[in-house]
Amino acid sequence: MINDLRNLLATTSFPYPMSNTIEVTGVNLTTVCYPNGNGFQCRCEERFALSYDSCVLYTHCDEIIQGTCRCINAIPADGQFCQPQLPPKTELDYDIDIEVTVSDIAMINDLRNLLATTSFPYPMSNTIEVTGVNLTTVCYPNGNGFQCRCEERFALSYDSCVLYTHCDDIIQGTCRCINAIPADGQFCQPQLPPKTELDYDIDIEVTVSDIAMINDLRNLLATTSFPYPMSNTIEVTGVNLTTVCYPNGNGFQCRCEERFALSYDSCVLYTHCDEIIQGTCRCINAIPADGQFCQPQLLCYPNGNGFQCRCEERFALSYDSCVLYTHCDDIIQGTCRCINAIPADGQFCQPQLLCYPNGNGFQCRCEERFALSYDSCVLYTHCDDIIQGTCRCINAIPADGQFCEPQPPNTPKTELDYDIDIEVTVSDIAMINDLRNLLTTTSFPYPMTNTIEVTGVNLTTVCYPNGNGFQCRCEEWFYLSNDSCVLYTPCDDIIQGTCTCINAIPADGQFCEPQPPNTPKTELDYDIDIEVTVSDIAMINDLRNLLATTSFPYPLTNTIEVTGVNLTTVCYPNGNGFQCRCEEWFSLSNDSCVLYTPCDDIIQGTCTCINAIPADGQFCEPQPPNTPKTELDYDIDIEVTVSDIAVINDLRNLLATTSFPYPLTNTIEVTGVNLTTVCYPNGNGFQCRCEERFALSYDSCVLYTPCDDIIQGTCTCINAIPADGQFCQLQPPSTITTTTPTTSTSSPVTDITTPIGNTTAVSPTSSSQKPSPVTDITTPIGNTTAVSPKSSSQKPSPVTDITTPIGNTTAVSPTSSSQKPSPVTDITTPIGNTTAVSPTSSSQKPSPVTDITTPIGNTTAVSPTSSSQKPSPVTDITTPIGNTTAVSPTSSSQKPSPVTDITTPIGNTTAGPVTDITTPIGNTTAVSPTSSSQKPSPVTDITTPIGNTTAGRDRNITTTTAKTTAGRDRNITTTTAKTTAGPFRNITTTTVKTTAVSPPIQSSNTDFTVEMSFKILLPFDQDLANSSSSTFKKLKSPIEQILTEHYKTLNGFVAVYVLGFRSGSVITDFRVETNSVNSTEIAILDSKVAVALKTQGYSVDPISFSGVIQGNQPFIKNYDIIYPGTTLQLTCVVPETMQMETGSWSVNGLPVSNNAKYSITNSPPTLTVQGMSIDDNGIYKFTMTQSIFTFTHNESISVTNVIPPIIQLNMLATNVPCGANENIPLTCCVTYYLIKNVTATWMDGSVEISSVQTITNMLCVSVAYPVPKQCDTKQLTCQVMVRKASTTQTFTDDVTIAFFSGAPDCKDPTTYGLGKNGNTSTVSCPANFTGSSTAVCENGNWTLVEDNCVFSLIKTLELFSQSLSSANVSSFVHDLRTTTSSYTTIITQSPATISSIVSILEKIASVSQNISKTSMQDVLETVSVLVSPQTQQSWAALNSNNRTQNTSSALLESIENITHSLSSNSFTINTTNIELIKTTLTFPFNEAMNSSQIFIPSQGLPNNTSITTIVFTTLEFVLPARTTGNTMNNSINGVVMLAYVNETINNVSLTFDKTNKTKGNNQCVFWNFKVFNGIGGWDSTGCQLQSETNDSVTCSCNHLTSFSILMSPFVPESIEVALNYITYIGVSISMGCLVLCLIIEAFVWSVVTNNSTAHMRHVAIVNIALSLLIANIWFIIGAAVSNVGQSTPKNACSAATFFIHFFYLALFFWMLISALFLFYRTMMVFSHMSKRTMMAISFTVGYGAPLIIAIITIAVTAPKNGYFRQDDACWLNWYQTKALLAFVIPALIIVVVNLLILIVVLYKLLMRGVGENRQSEAKNALVVIARCVAVLTPIFGITWGLGIGTMVTPANPGVHIAFAVFNSLQGFFILVFGTLLDSKVRSAVVGRFSFLHSLSSRTRSTSAGPSLSSLAERFRRRRQTNYSNKRYTLTRRSFEKNKMFLLLILQQV
């Protein structure tokens, strides 16, 4: 049968249909089982087998092959029969880590031995075998923790080494020991072979809109150190900026950076815009479409010592470049690819070969003008023609590196001749003869290829054995060189240095060469330096002797001879190093002497000894012949172009402070530099002005139009830049006037040079005087006048060699007839005015004044005025800085001193002794005696230390440091005096103590402070330096009086002060404080002051007035607070008369000019700074010069640092095709004020992703994230860490990557990318915006669904507002207004930006205090932009979006809240769309505004009540027309008025003009901020239409508050009015009932509290009633001060909310106490607690707990302005802070607890009579339970449980009504059920009125009903009888317990 079954299955056709829905696809016979004696045996059919488990379990009866068998000895119990055999399985390798914990180190060794002896592979089963086991890591404790070491051939990864602290070296990124057990299980891994380094070139295209960023990128790349490690296996070896493309009008132009070029094809294809050189260009007129940007000509990077340059693949450097710049790889075929320098000649890499795949392999093509050799063309199959032995294309990459070579130009090729030596070895001499014959008969040239031919073959040398060796002979016309002849022994004569036979075969291959033509040779001279190192000094002497005795020339070869050998330099150790000395006739250069420290004198720029061995090999050289050098003078004109006027002032200061002559080298010095001409634009062209003491020639003045007068043939100003370069020259010598005497011949004037300054030499005027000749007067800077004497008998003194570089020098001879003048010789005064005045008397003999040193001051040598005085000589006066006065005695017995020895550091001196007087800076006056008997002192010996000096003594005196502190003593010291070439003299260092007068304190309320000075021509008295001296006061008083008289007429004058006096004559410093400055007006007043002082006897120099104007007004800034990234504008407030002048700006002392960062404009002077950052912090200064005034103002500017970092991702959610072979570009950019403190990384979970970081004005990290193989949604995180002091803050932002399968439905590669229908994509905002925009793929298109793009400047302000305080609100709102006004168009078109500004206004409203009119103006100007008609579409988008539809309501509310903080002043503000009036209420109040009117009748309010009204004219599209009545098609038909009064007003009448007069059905509504779930809407509650005309509508509004808000923040609008009535009626009834309850309790208190139980019960009732009464009273107060739909008054509502909260909580806690007391008495009948204890607990819980909750609530929520509701009622806030929960949670908990207690009590009540015959009392028990519930429900506050319903279902009106009814009437229920139904209370009341009962018993019948007391007694007896009749088996104790419980319940009932 089995066989039949097999046959049947074999013949059946499949599939076999069973029905129309079912078919059998196949049937197989798998297993055949049959009995085999002991049991059964099962065998599998062909192609079937049993599993390994079945084979083992049931005992296989054949072999197990590949884990299967085909026979078992049982029928499988689990039905696991044979299964189809599977194809052979694939082997899988698994690495399994096993962690073994052992405590014995020996076990590890045993484990090692076991593994070493085990044979692998080791089978585990038929399918599993262990191929090997390795012990990788051993960890053991080491004291502080664990140490893990790797076994041999294993290592730890770099990350593990760093993370867990390696304990051995990290080699090749691995270590073998760490100090911890890896937490991630990353133990030692097998060591890998050294990795191969791979080089990748990555091109990155960057799009920027600011050219400055490219420069920043260049700077960044220039300053970055390479290689730059990216990870432990990746490093960036270099980054190069290759190509810069920018728009050029018609399209784009791309230029290559240095060392980069474009290929020839790109140059031609895209139109090159420069020359094509060597097949490349560097500029094209398009962006390459194929991405073929500039390629490296050479890639250079620093390598430590310098730069290393490498060629890219298929490029190479020429042989010359390789040799010249030192190649760093091999030179192959005349080229190399690496050099150690940047080529200075621009010879970069040239292309070798360009290869690319062509299908079958590779095809390589040469660039233009390059070609492949003939051999390469043939070897690698050329793919173009071979022309002239070259081709340009082959079909393979050359294996031998034979790339393209430069193609020669298409000109006749140059033939190259090669001489090739071929050595032939033959054993038959006849073959040599045959070779000779063959060469003789061969025709030459003989072609080898098309480019090579053999021009001739010569047999040159024949070598053969000659017995002892070999002998070589040359063929005819060939010879051997002299070296070969000598070396190998000639066998014939050496003639003319050659021979033709030698006795050896040359080992160097130097065989016979052709004989040269017999022409005379040219001799060449070589100087060879040989450095010899010896250790014995005797050898040097031997060398000297050898050289001295050797005869020169000395022949070395027949062509070389030594003409001479000289020993030049001997170097030997001298202890610290080496000393080198030159031999005779040799010396070292000046540079070597200076560089290596000379050890002898430097003479004529050379020395013969230095203290080191020259590193550059510059040893001693032969000394030049001793000829005197000629000094040459050069005048060099330098033209400097600057754009900043401040640079010119800096240049002036630099020249003024530089000491001349200034040595450039040892042979060149600059003797002086003068600024001659300044040219600047003046509107139409240029104007050039000469500096002081310079002038233009007459021709230049006429040619270029003078702009001042032409005086003496010169002018100082012209209206053009001279085209011939003839700028200002030193004023001509014609300015020196020589006046001759009347009776004699004038003295000659010789050699006068007067560049700048005035020098006057005045001869005596007496008739007996003989004029002195004026000789050799040198005045480099100044004008010199020589005046001869007027007398015929006077003999003048010679005036010789006067040098006055800067200043005025006057030499005045005596005026007396008997006087013998002294010669004035060689006076040098560098800076200052020096006057030498000779005596006027003939009999006086001057006394000498010797050795005076005055470091600071003006020096005046004044001789005595007495006739008997003998002048003393003035010797050695040193006056480095300032003015010094030396005064000779004035008595007749004094001996005056002659003025001697004046030294000036700059000048040239000739003829005369040098007596050394130094006056570097200051004015020096030498005044001789004036009496008739005076003998003048000679003025002699004036010296210049730097210059050319002959025949005299020379001395240098140096002044180093002078430090001055205003108001303190200052010491100035002259430190060094160095004297050369003359006798020495002591230079005395003195200290002059000067007291500076402290100026008056500058007024803070003036606009300008003018610091001025002028000079009084008087000798300076040192007492004038002391402000307390009488001399100072005597001079100050009249000067200050005159200054005040004249300057008080100055426009804007405030005050004038004399500050002090300085030397230099008497320089008076004074200050003018004024609010206006007019330089012309001040100049006029200066001249008047000078005249007025002269009338007082003070000689004033009228041209000495000068001043500095200090601006006191701060810069006008466009932003009061400087935010990162903003553009700052600083405008300086300058005097009106200086508005048109041009000034200069500086930042932190550095001048700035127009560039990408700064922009400067004038009139008014404004500096604009782009992209402010923390790096721009500092001092900003403006300076301007006009006439004699310099204006200046500086101010510190800093960027705020409170704004958190802004993270901007290029995408937040994107969609990627599943399995796409691409990378996802992700960029995370961070903006922060201090970007250097920010780090950013991309994270994939906890794993950091390698990224590329760039830093400009922001930090950006980019990553190309590869699409993973698993298509699961991926979330990546940008993690930003900001370091602040010692803390680090972390910020994150996420990117979600979703994957889809199939073709995308939506395609937008530029913005939203790809996606399927339903996918969402979120991307970053465009430039200048921050945030994101989200789109959804719908019907094949991306549809924008959410736009959160906020204008970046507004986002910055929003972030700053998060830390806004009341102190900086004023500045902040000004900045907000500035931004909104400046960018109105951008803001009005951006809904997200408008929403952001509304959020800012909300923050302003929350922190504002005492807002001024200016700040409110800024706010309303900002709001006016938000509500302008241009924002209509933006508001439509906001109001239609569920997320932003409350924005309009928030805007209105924020404005209302800001008005609450307005200052008390009255004012009016009008903007484009808004009008505000703030005024004081005067009743009746009636105010008409824009299209509206408000009327408030008299209401008895305080006199200082203020009202603020704001009218909006354009809110019809801002506030949506949603109303509470669900009315459709509503619209605003008038203006919107906002009114705020700081008191409660009950009735307000408002009149509005209709916007659309045709519309009917007008209604009066107010904006209710809480309706529509808090988004706000129009509400008519409490507002009524009072009257209506065709043009206007009058409304009247009042509002009430609903009671149900206590539990629920939401009240249904449909029942709000009903709830209001219920609330107020119920509360009123409750209040009356509670008062009555308290009266009754007080009335019966002593009667009903006779035991502790009753006492505690009534205490609880009284406190419940009292708390509820007070809470209701405050509830009414709160309702009265609140106004539904309007903001609630802050102070009143805060108090009302607090007390309502407190007393309602007290009510609940006393209800809890009442319930707990009942529970206590019920459950613990026999427990006893004292009354005192119960009272303490009750009052502590009843009032203490509510007080704590209430205080905590107000403390937490009040600072956030979230304590009470802002819009409708005085009750706890819900929307902002959820403060309402502080009442709801405790109240509901208490209600639940009380309800549980009530249930327990009822249960006890039901169970009190458990026993027999209970049916008779069932009815009575139910009545008792009902009464118990009725009594306890109001006492326990169970009805407040309805509050849960108001919160859970706030829209259910029934719950609200029930809550309002029951809880507003709680006081009534307490009175009825807690007091009136209490039998004891009733009895007590009856007892109190017992006299009424007595009176009634005498008048009434005895049959009257029983009294309440008799009823109680009867009830008591009946109860006792009933109990006694019952047959209970209770014990006495049980009965008493039950009895006390029942009494307690009955008392309650």
Per-chain topology:
Elements: H1 2-11, E1 16-17, E2 23-24, E3 31-35, E4 40-44, E5 48-49, H2 52-57, E6 71-72, E7 83-84, H3 105-117, E8 122-123, E9 129-130, E10 137-141, E11 146-150, E12 154-155, H4 158-163, E13 177-178, E14 189-190, H5 211-223, E15 228-229, E16 235-236, E17 243-247, E18 252-256, E19 260-261, H6 264-269, E20 283-284, E21 295-296, E22 299-302, E23 307-310, E24 315-316, H7 319-324, E25 338-339, E26 350-351, E27 354-357, E28 362-365, E29 370-371, H8 374-379, E30 393-394, E31 405-406, H9 429-441, E32 446-447, E33 453-454, E34 461-465, E35 470-474, E36 478-481, H10 482-488, E37 498-499, E38 501-502, E39 513-514, H11 537-549, E40 554-555, E41 561-562, E42 569-573, E43 578-582, E44 586-589, H12 590-595, E45 606-607, E46 609-610, E47 621-622, H13 645-657, E48 662-663, E49 669-670, E50 677-681, E51 686-690, E52 694-695, H14 698-703, E53 717-718, E54 729-730, E55 738-739, E56 758-762, E57 774-775, E58 783-787, E59 799-800, E60 809-812, E61 824-825, E62 834-837, E63 849-853, E64 859-862, E65 874-878, E66 886-887, ...
Parallel strand pairs: 55-58, 56-58, 56-60, 57-59, 59-61, 60-62, 62-68, 63-65, 64-66, 64-68, 67-69, 77-85, 87-94
Antiparallel strand pairs: 1-2, 3-4, 4-6, 5-7, 8-9, 10-11, 11-13, 12-14, 15-16, 17-18, 18-20, 19-21, 22-23, 23-25, 24-26, 27-28, 28-30, 29-31, 32-33, 34-35, 35-38, 36-37, 36-39, 40-41, 42-43, 43-46, 44-45, 44-47, 48-49, 50-51, 51-53, 52-54, 70-73, 71-72, 74-76, 74-77, 75-76, 78-79, 79-83, 80-81, ...
